[in-house]
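Lecture notes, structural biology module. Today: joint structure prediction for complexes of two components.
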Amino acid sequence: MKKKFLSVGLCATMVASLFAGCGADNGAATSPETVETSGELTWRIGGIGPITGGAAQYGQGVMNAIQIAVDEVNAEGGINGYKVSFNFQDDEADNQKAVNAYNTLKDWGMQILEGTVTSGACAAVSAETYNDRIFQLTPSASSTSVTEGNDNTFQICFSDPNQGTVSADYIADNGLGTKIGIIYDSSDPYSSGVYQNFAKEAANVGLEIVATEAFTSDNKTDFSTQLQKCKDAGADLLFLPFYYQEGSVVLKQAHDMSYAPVMFGVDGFDGLLGVKDFDVSLAEGVYLLTPFAADAEDDATKNFVTKYEEQFGGTPNQFAADAYDGVYILKEALESAGLTPEASNEEICDALIAAIQKVNYNGLTGEGMTWNDQGEVSKSPKAVIIQNGGYVSVE
Amino acid sequence: MKKLNGSTKNLISSIAIIVVLYLVMNGMQATGNLSSLMSGLLVPVCAYSLVAIGLNLCVGYLGELSLGHAGFMCVGAFTSAFFSKAFQNEIPDVPRFILALLIGTFFAALFGFLIAIPVLRLSGDYLAIVTLAFGEIIKNVINVLYVGKDVNGFHFSLKDMMSLNMDFDGVVIVNGAQGITGTPRQSTFTIAVVLLILALIITHNFVNSRTGRAVKAIRDNQIAAETVGLPITKYKLTAFTISAAIAGVGGVIYAHNINSLTATTNNFGYNMSIMILVYVVLGGIGNFSGSVVATVVLTMLPEMLRGLSTYRMLIYSIVLIGLMLFNWAPGILKFREEHGLTTKQLVGRFKKNKEVQ
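The predicted structure, tokenised, for the full assembly:
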């Protein structure tokens, strides 16, 4: 018996040392609170998003990008002379967990929230920030339920209605297709939100929707049925409002059944070219909406992408870029309002609500971004087409 | 005075513990000593406890493994949240919440009843699989359900928002995968605790009633019970329906504590059903207060482990395995007995000390 316990104890120690080793290796990724705040007065910015579970890659991208921006801001002397400390909490893309994460951040003393990453969780948290008067800026929650009725919540990404409407208009104006087939994820708020707004606008601009096929997050590995139905209905354009992993499967399967309509994705398709084991040539001629291209030639994008690749590996997607912009947007708004961290959360919140509506920001994801009192950003989605393995603007 | 039997004493002591904890938490909240995280967790913990109690009735006394209790919670949550949102301006707060509670409970019970009719003809693994499937069906149906309200009344659709054909001023209440946003927040810790205590009393009385004894007899030996002349189906249905109803109450509390209600795998799918089963198994099958304790511990644990960042869920799983082994592995149970470390012995020692003092 004693021997057994001894061995179990030893095992436990070994496992523990293993984790300790891991922790030391990739520093920033493991400790959410990266800037030590030993009594020094700092800006406390919180972040919430999924860093475990199915949607982890979006949350991690946002977390890493904010970290890069915060490090840069701190290296340049902070905001209004005060350094920024950043704490990112996991919500597993679950509404209740997101509220728990928010409460954890509140205990930490958060003054401004840059999050959350997913729409459902964000709507749950924005009700809390509204009650507590904490300013909230979400990098990627695109649903209108996030900002509706909350004067303190602002979006950096464009909203679902915006994307759906712009897509339909663009397709109609450029005559890309007349018979539209739609495949969307009915279990995802983002996907169904964009779909609904697309369908609404399609009716206005005279596009004929010949097939509407849904899938759910539980079965998103085989789209042959949906594709076959769209093919049978004679759709010459497929509207695909979902994320790029599923997108790569759809493209592959459509190719296998030699079905070649015009493929039109929305901003979730950004990242398509980086999918592992995906034949990039299949993506040729795919349209998508994105505010950000990782291979853009301007200095700001180059700087961000290089830093991201160096520190965390992988190519940042547009969520990460939105999140990176978010920190600088906050910086600009805080500087124009002339605030210091001594102000209470209410003061910061009220001042930022006023200040952000006057900000005119040039960032990675758009030029001259401004915000209205609804919390929506002014930048409009731009369509790009994939040619020779890269994005080409079509406007 | 009539002498109380053992299980009633247990019930009274667990209610007393809950009341004391309630008072302590309230006191801490009033004086500002309770962290936001903890005060945010109070209501969800009660909601999950209720579902665990419901499931425990099914697993512990009916002897049937249900993997779809999150589905009943989901029914309770969505029906009540729908009602509250739809009549937000028509009915004043208090009666509306009471009605919502009744509606949520009723619909969860109704679904439990309807499901039980075909399902309880199966037993063991088959029942588990069917309930699992049922939970998934509920989740997926809610994800494609669209309900709107305008001057002409309610509009339903299983396709999309446009096919509701509403007036311009219509309001979408259930918006498919985006769920219900803007449910009034009316679940307070007090209401949740009262309902929790009520559920404990109801289940305790149920299992010790004539019906409860019959249910236990059926669990222990169905053929013997049938021979004695017990109407098996009736008793099984009753127990399963009550179990579903209590899970529904948990759903109502959950729904009225959060602004945005969506049906995902994590909160109303099989993940949650299994999680609730874990609460029940860890707390002790057939032990209602145990379920509550296990729920409290296992809901708090991942939040307490937030400092570990991405390793959090990994460590949580390891702790879970450790707890299960500590509680149920025969070897460890024997070791605990030999060294006086079982719960009974520990409680006994505590009592003795008290008497000495």
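Point to remember: The first helix of chain A runs from residue 2 to 25.
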